[in-house]
């Protein structure tokens, strides 16, 4: 954690110290700046762009967000009483952010921390037999888009035109299937272990546990299965060969993450920078008002990270 003296000019202070801040993130994997005094979305946007230059537009989100401006988003809309388990943002895409930026404009009364966890440490702590299987097979994300749960087709792909969606899917190695009622289902296979493009460290890089059915609260899982069927869940994950992942494996992944989590409650004005490949992040349940703005930057192609399985986009 750093305690800067911004002197009422957060964008100016950040711009002047950008090189040192990036070096600290490269060294530690994440950095929290407290006392910066961020107070509004425009100031946050100036700070994010001063640090990262061009911000990435989000594609293939699993949940909707409020858009504050170009590349400036709210946290993903997720029930406040449920955790968002450890994950690496957009780890199922072919191009994902190398840097995540978070800024707190309203802190919850309790909970709501954005925890961080070292992906190389998690990889070392997991059973070798399990990680070797995922490294050999990869992992599969399945999605079923509906009007009730998760991001819409338009939010995920930037269009709801069927031809446009199909073109995006082909270009990004996503299998797709339109159901008789018009519902879209997709499937994409990705590497679970990658190498950091700058350091070469092997990283546990995925959203296997977070987007798996067994991470849901039991009553939520039961409701979704009753409503959409076991094959129609808004999202789910599988082993790379298509086998279902047992609940005990998901519990193990979440337990290992928890054993390697560091967390600090948000305070108004805080800024957090996270290396998205080296460091997973989460969101705890909370009470009260929570407004944390998000930016994504430093785009990285999966092919730059020595993926363990070949992905062919057509």
From TrEMBL:
Identify the stretch annotated as signal peptide in this record: none
The answer to whether keyword Chaperone applies is no
Q: Which keywords fit this entry according to its UniProt record?
A: Antibiotic biosynthesis, Iron, Oxidoreductase
Highest lineage ranks of the organism?
Answer: Bacteria, Bacillati, Actinomycetota, Actinomycetes, Pseudonocardiales
Q: Which residues form the TauD/TfdA-like domain?
A: 10-295
Pfam families reported for this sequence:
TauD
Q: Which GO terms describe its molecular function?
A: oxidoreductase activity
| Protein name as annotated | Protein AmbD
Domain of life, per lineage: Bacteria
Q: Which cofactor does it need?
A: Fe(2+)
Query: Is Transit peptide set as a keyword in this record?
Result: no
- Name the InterPro entries for this protein: AlphaKG_dependent_hydroxylases, TauD-like_sf, TauD/TfdA-like
Example of a GO biological process term: antibiotic biosynthetic process
Source organism of the structure: Amycolatopsis taiwanensis
């Amino acid at each position: 954690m750093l305690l800067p003296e911004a002197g009422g000019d957060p964008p100016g202070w950040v711009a002047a110290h950008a090189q040192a801040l990036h070096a600290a993130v490269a060294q530690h994997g994440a950095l929290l700046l407290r006392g910066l005094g961020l107070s509004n979305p425009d100031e946050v946007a100036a700070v994010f762009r001063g640090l990262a230059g061009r911000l990435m537009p989000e594609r293939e989100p699993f949940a909707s967000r409020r858009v504050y401006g170009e590349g400036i988003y709210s946290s993903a809309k997720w029930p406040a009483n449920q955790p968002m388990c450890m994950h690496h943002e957009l780890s199922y895409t072919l191009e994902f952010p190398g840097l995540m930026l978070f800024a707190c404009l309203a802190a919850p009364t309790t909970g709501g921390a954005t925890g961080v966890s070292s992906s190389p440490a998690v990889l070392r702590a997991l059973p070798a037999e399990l990680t070797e299987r995922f490294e050999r097979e990869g992992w599969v994300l399945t999605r079923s888009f509906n009007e009730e749960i998760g991001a819409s087709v338009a939010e995920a792909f930037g269009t709801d035109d069927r031809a446009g969606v199909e073109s995006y899917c082909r270009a990004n190695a996503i299998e797709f299937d339109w159901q008789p009622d018009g519902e879209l289902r997709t499937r994409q296979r990705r590497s679970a272990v990658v190498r950091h493009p700058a350091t070469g460290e092997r990283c546990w890089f995925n959203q296997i546990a977070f987007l798996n059915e067994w991470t849901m609260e039991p009553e939520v899982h039961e409701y979704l299965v009753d409503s959409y069927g076991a094959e129609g869940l808004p999202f789910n994950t599988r082993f790379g060969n298509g086998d279902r992942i047992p609940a005990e494996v998901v519990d193990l992944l979440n337990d290992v993450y928890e054993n390697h989590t560091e967390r600090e409650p948000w305070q108004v004005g805080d800024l957090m920078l996270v290396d998205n490949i080296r460091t997973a992040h989460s969101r705890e349940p909370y009470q009260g008002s929570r407004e944390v703005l998000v930016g994504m930057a430093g785009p990285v192609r999966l092919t730059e990270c020595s993926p363990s399985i070949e992905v062919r986009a057509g």
